[in-house]
Each structure stands twice: as C-alpha cells, then as structure tokens.
Design brief:
This protein has 60 residues and is mainly α. The chain is 58% helix and 0% strand. The chain has one domain (8-22, 32-59). It contains two helices and no strands. During stationary phase, converts 70S ribosomes to an inactive dimeric form (100S ribosomes). It is found in: Cytoplasm.
Amino acid sequence: MKRQKRDKLQRAHTKGFNAALQGQSKENCPFEELNAREEWLGGWREGREAFTTNGMKAYI
C-alpha cells in the first residue's frame, strides 16, 4: 500500500509554522509560487502567535 503524500500547501503551512517557532523572519519564505507563499506566511503567523502566547516550552 502506497503512502499518500501530504498536500503541497499543507506542507508549506507546516514549514512556515515551524520556521516561526525557530525564530526565523517571515522574509525567509522559501516559496515563490503565490499559493504556497501565502500558506507559508499563514503558518508563520500562526507559529509566531503560538510562540508569543505560549512560549517556546510548549513546543520543545
């Protein structure tokens, strides 16, 4: 049985979320395609909010 790949946009969102938790700037977005870039930035914003609200302890 083949494993199904995750959706490209979901991966972009997750990578953005993790980048924010690691303290990376939103300027470091690796995606050039508009949809993927928007998802990455959305994930980055969520990650930044989670980081500032809960602190890093919740994610280590």
